[in-house]
Structures are given as C-alpha cells and as structure tokens.
Specification:
Strand order of the largest sheet of chain B: 3-4-9-6-8-7
CATH superfamily of chain A: P-loop containing nucleotide triphosphate hydrolases
Largest sheet of chain A: 6 strands, mixed
CATH class of chain A: Alpha Beta
Number of helices of chain B: 16
Mean pLDDT of chain A: 89
Strand order of the largest sheet of chain A: 6-7-8-3-9-10
Number of strands of chain A: 10
Oligomer: heterodimer
Number of domains of chain B: 2
Distance between the termini of chain B: 34 Å
Largest sheet of chain B: 6 strands, mixed, barrel
Structural class of chain A: alpha/beta
Radius of gyration of chain A: 18 Å
CATH architecture of chain A: 3-Layer(aba) Sandwich
Low-confidence stretches of chain A: 1-10
Number of strands of chain B: 13
Mean pLDDT of chain B: 85
Structural class of chain B: alpha+beta
Number of domains of chain A: 1
Chain lengths: 246, 442
C-alpha cells in the first residue's frame, strides 16, 4: 500500500477496484522465468479515469489482464467490488467479468457475423439472470454512441471509428463497475481517435470508471491520473489537471 | 430457458452461413447417412413384408403336409424299378378320422405333363385337386367356373387353365368349352384363373410356386386317367415314381391348435411311414422364422448405415475443428465478455447439432423419395436392360420399399447423437483455450 495514491483517501470516494502487491511470473520452459509484474498496488475509485503507460514489456498488458479477471496473479490480492477475486476459479471469474467489467480492445473485436445491435447485446447473453428490456437498452446505447441508424449493419460495413463506438456501447451494456480499454485509439487516425476519447470522457463524466492502457501521451493526457510502469513496477503516478469542459 | 436455446440455435445458423459450401458439405455427409438408413430399412422391410404376405397366404391356421422324395437307397420298394414314396390316400383318411382338431383337409397331386391344343403344346403342371383348392391358394377366376365337388365324384374330364397356360394354348379364342389333350385324354375347359404373381421360396421349407402355368383337373379324374405313376427318362435309363398325393393342407379352427395338431399329425405319419418321405410345414412357424430373419437383417442394415453416419460425423468434427481454430479470436472475446466454458461448449455444440440436425431432416426428406427412386430405377432398367430385368427373381422385380416410422426416428436420433458426440471434442477445445491467448490470436 506504500505506493497507493494519496488521493484515494483524500477524495473520500468509494474504491471499486484495488490491487495489493500484485505479481505475475511467467514460466517459459523449465528454468526461464519472466517477472511481468513485481508487486503492483493500485486503488481505483468510483468515477476514476486512469491511464496506464509504459514501454512494451513493462507489464501493462499483464496488469490489464489481471484487472480484467482474465488471469490469476502469481501472488498478491485483487479486490473487485469489495471481494478478493485473485483466487477464484474459471467459472466464478467468468461471472465476475460478466457483471463488473467492460472491455474495449484495440482492434474492436466485434463478432463479424452479428449485427451492431446483436454485438452490443452479447454480454447480456452471459448474465446469469435474464436481463429484461436488454434489446431496448442496447438500442439506447447504440443511439448514445451515435449509431442509432446502423443497428442492423454488420461490423464489416462500418468504419474503424464506428466499430469502436459499437465496442464502447457493448462495454457498458452490462453496467460494469470498471471499463478496461486496451489502446482504444491504437488502430484509429488521430481525428477519429479524438472522437473516441471524447466519447470515453463523456462516459467518465457520467460516472463510469475507466482504466485505459495507452502509449500515446496525448491520449493519456485525457485521463485524471497516469500510472507509468517500468519493468513490472510502478515508476510514477501523476495527476492531470482537470480539463475544462467542452 | 427456451428463449436462450432458440437464441443459441439462431446464432449457430448465422455462424454456419459464413461458410455455406463448407456447411453444406458437412450436412451432405449426414444426409447421405440418414437417407441410407431409411432406404435400406425400407427395402429390407419390403422384402420381408413380401415373405410374410406369402406365409400369411399359406394361412396361419394351416398345416401343410408335403411329399418329399427320400434319399435313393432308403425307398420303400428297394431294388424295384419304381420308387414309391410320399403321402398316401390312407394318410388323408387317417388324418380326417383321427385328428379331431382338423376342420378341413384338402388333398392335392401335381404332375408335369404335356398339354396339347391342336398344334400347340405346353409342359404344364397338371394339378389334381378339389373345389377347395381355389380358395385355399387365394386364386381367383378370370372366366368360367372352378372345379366342383360333382366333377370329382363323377370323374369328369374337365379342366381349369392357368393364366399363362390359357394364353399359350388359346391365344386368340375363348378357351371355355374347348378341349385340351393331356396324355391320351381330352378335357373340356370350364374355367380360367386370373393372373397371380408367383410366390417365392420360403426358407428351405417350401419351394417357389408359380400358378400361371397350371392346369387344374379333379383329383379323382387324375387318379383314374393318369394314375400315381410318373415315368421320367434320364440319360438313357428310365425311372418311375409312384406318389399318391403331393400335398395335404389341413386347417384347424384356432391358432393355438396349430402346434399340437401338427405334433399329432407328425406322430400319426411316423407310425405308418418307415422312412421320412413327407414334411410337415407350419406356416405359423415360418412366420416366426421370417420375423427373426427380418430383425437380423435390420440390425445388419443399421450397422452398415451407422458406419456411413460415423464417416459423416468425422467430417463434421473436422469442419468444427477448423471453425474453432478460425474463430479463436471470437472465443477470446466472448470469454472476456463473461462467457463461461460451458457457454462456449454449448455454442459450438449447438452449431454442430444444427448441422447434423439439418442433415438429419434433409435425410428424412430424401428418405421419403425411396419409393419414386425405386420405381424410376425399375423403369430405367426395363427400358435399358430388359433382358437383365427378366432374369431377376420376382421378389426383387416386384419389390415395394416400405418406409417404417422407427427407421426414421432411429436415423434422425443417430444423426443428432453424431452431432453431440463429434461436436463435443471441438467444443471442449474451444472452451479450454486461454482467453488471453485467444484474444491475441490473429
């Protein structure tokens, strides 16, 4: 907890996700061990917007995978929604992902054979309980991201920016506690990337917690905080001045 | 729950539509398997139905006693020029007198003789019988009348011609009232039977019987005019046979009386025959044997068709493995979005089951084409290779496939089981991928 940001206590806001001395070691072959994370403790509050930066190999993808409950840490703890999820089995982790986490990927990762509307609804089909009015909710979100007129198009009929908008709508359809974005603008030109960032910012203003991995400084500058990783450790945490509203 | 299932199936269909040709080929494999099951079983059922029909024609309440030529050295009149064997007229009387359960017994004697009409000659089977013979063998008349009891009592020289016999001897005229010559005697034709398809041999117990080349005359007339003796010339030497009756058909009242009555008749005949020169055939027993044979046949057919379904299943598995590899990324995305391993298994399994289910449904649809396909094949054979067609045995020539409900149910069920069995491995493979690896897959 030594390198936990002081703002956590200062703001007095609710913590939604917290890591304690998270480490991850990959074993390659018999002897070679790769220490991807060497003890990372972070605290994310409700409504946070955090950018994680670092050179390739710094451990930012590993951290994102652990935050997304796609992997187990070698040691350390990860609290999500007040519960240690670092030792849960596959089935429980799937359930955690479906309830608390929204994913946005660099390459959008929409399912090609499904329409926009169906893509947005995919996370709902994995909820343990049937979500009433799921379709209406998906339509509302499609309008929110500006694709109300493209509901029945397939991903191949959309531009990159439009596909990422669909992905963003998909990431919030299950009302997650945190949204994890992995280089959300990495495949987009800067103008489209800026639009996507506007969209993420507006979501954040609406109260969504966003954790974003990026290596572009001007993208990271849109976040409230920037966490820099180096060799699996937190090298630096900086606060951005709150930007003026549009 | 049902809604989710429908959703899964719809998703399966839309994924399969991505590769139409590939999916179509996979469906084809199952389709052929299912169609094969239905067609093979339908044909097998058709054949056995024919056999059963014939056995039923013999009558389940009948007991057939036939003369059988015993092995040469053990004949009754050993060393004599004549071989005497078979059922005796006394046997007929004895059966009627001593077996109370026998309601009716119809004796019959058949001899192959040359039948003439002017310059037309035919080697016909001359059947000496009584009036009951017509009904007993389910024959019907085309013209005139059948033999009457009075003909037998008065030793009338009257004859009823079979369909083909009449056609050969009287190609242009009405045979009724005309005369035919059998041996040295002339007979007045009083009737003609309608055409009847020959019955096939059943097991080894009954020979095939063709009715169309028959000539029927009263039994007593046959005894009086022709006698019991048959002379045959074979490779220079002459041989004589003395047979009194070729067959007696005994009828009992109830089905349960068949077996005990047959037993009594056997015992009775044993007492008066030193050698076994007769056979007691029970059609009811034949029916049971035919049933057994049919079951065996069906099991064999299902085995063969099952192998073709297995091959289809392997094809499906191959395609699903390719699909899983191709859609690794999608699997990773779905896992990240909250899908459990079970969700992934169900997704791919439902795709396989949609494939095999479609194959199964189409297979059933094609299965119903068995009858038209058979008649088309028959028609083509008749047009292109009539001489080959003529050499086929009648039960193949006249085969009517009978589609049975159980074969459809079994075939469809097997196709679904194939889908689950062969879909499970690819689906599990998809489910146990590491989601991180899967997301990174290009």
């Amino acid at each position: 907890m030594s390198n936990a940001p002081p703002s956590a206590a200062a703001t007095g806001r609710k913590s939604v996700a917290r890591t304690v001395q998270l480490t991850k070691t990959y074993r390659l072959g018999n002897r070679l061990e790769v220490h991807a994370l060497r003890g990372v403790s972070l605290d994310f509050q409700d409504g946070d917007f955090v950018a994680i930066m670092g050179a390739s190999g710094s451990g930012k993808s590993t951290l994102l995978n652990l935050l997304g409950c796609l992997d187990h840490p070698t040691s350390g703890q990860y609290f999500l929604a007040g519960r240690d999820v670092s030792r849960l089995d596959d089935r429980a982790l799937s359930s955690i992902r479906s309830r608390y986490i929204g994913f946005i990927f660099q390459s959008y990762n929409l399912i090609p054979q499904l329409t926009v509307l169906e893509n947005i609804q995919v996370p709902l089909s994995y909820q343990r309980r049937e979500v009433p009015g799921g379709r209406e909710r998906a339509i509302r979100l499609a309008r929110l991201v500006g694709l109300g007129d493209r509901l029945h198009h397939r991903p191949s009929e959309l531009s990159g920016g439009q596909q990422q908008r669909v992905a963003i709508a998909r990431s919030i359809v299950n009302n997650p506690h945190i949204i994890l974005a992995d280089e959300p603008t990495g495949n987009l030109d800067s103008a489209t990337g800026a639009e996507i960032m506007d969209l993420l910012e507006s979501l954040n203003r609406a109260g969504r917690t966003i954790i974003m991995v990026t290596h572009e400084p001007d993208i990271a500058a849109r976040a409230h905080r920037i966490v820099r990783l180096r060799d699996g450790r937190i090298a630096d945490i900086s606060e951005n001045a709150p930007r003026a509203g549009p | 729950m049902l809604k989710r299932l429908v959703q899964k199936l719809r998703l399966g269909v839309s994924s399969l539509m991505l590769h139409k040709l590939r999916s179509a080929l996979a469906v084809l494999g199952i389709l052929i398997g299912v169609t094969a099951v239905i067609w093979l079983v339908a044909m097998g059922e058709g054949v056995s139905y024919q056999a059963q029909q014939q056995i039923k024609d013999l009558g389940a309440t009948n007991i057939i006693i036939r003369s059988v030529k015993p092995p040469q050295e053990s004949t009754r009149a050993g060393g004599s020029f004549f071989i005497e064997y078979g059922i005796l007229r006394e046997d007929y009387d004895r059966i009627l007198a001593n077996v109370p359960t026998v309601r009716r017994a119809v004796p019959m004697r058949e001899i192959v003789r040359e039948v003439r009409r002017m310059d037309r000659v035919l080697d016909a089977k001359v059947v000496g019988c009584t009036a009951d013979y017509l009904a007993l063998n389910h024959l019907s008349l085309a013209r005139g009348r059948f033999l009457a009891d009075r003909d037998d009592e008065q030793l009338e020289n009257v004859a009823v011609l079979g369909h083909k016999t009449a056609a050969v001897l009287f190609p242009y005229e009405d045979p009724i009232g005309q005369t035919v010559q059998i041996g040295a005697d002339f007979y007045v034709v009083v009737g003609q039977t309608a055409e009847r398809t020959a019955s096939a041999a059943i097991g080894g117990s009954l020979e095939a019987r063709e009715y169309d080349t028959d000539v029927y005359i009263p039994l007593s007339t046959l005894r009086w005019r022709i006698g019991d003796m048959v002379m045959t010339s074979r490779s220079g030497s002459r041989e004589g046979e003395i047979v009194q009756l070729s067959q007696i058909t005994a009828t009992v009242e109830n089905l349960d009386e068949v077996d005990p009555t047959a037993e009594v008749i056997r015992t009775l005949l044993q007492k008066y025959h030193k050698v076994v020169d007769y056979a007691v055939v029970v059609p009811k027993e034949l029916l049971r044997q035919a049933e057994m044979l049919r079951m065996l046949f069906n099991v064999l057919l299902i085995l063969i068709a099952g192998i073709s379904l297995l091959v289809g299943g392997i094809g499906i598995m191959n395609i699903m493995l390719a699909t899983v590899t191709e859609r690794t990324r999608e699997i990773g995305v779905r896992r990240a979005l909250g899908a459990t391993r079970q969700d992934i298994i169900l997704q791919f399994l439902s795709e396989t089951v949609v494939l095999t289910g479609m194959g199964g449904l189409l297979g059933v649809a094609f299965g119903f084409l068995c009858k038209p396909a058979m008649s088309a094949a028959r028609w083509a054979m008749q047009r292109l290779l009539p001489e080959v067609m003529a050499t086929l045995p009648p039960n193949i020539r006249n085969l009517e496939p009978r589609i049975t409900l159980w074969s459809i149910v079994v075939a469809f069920a097997i196709s679904m089981v194939v889908g689950v069995v062969f879909g499970l491995y690819p689906a599990r493979r998809a489910a146990y991928m590491d989601p991180i690896e899967a997301l990174r897959h290009e």
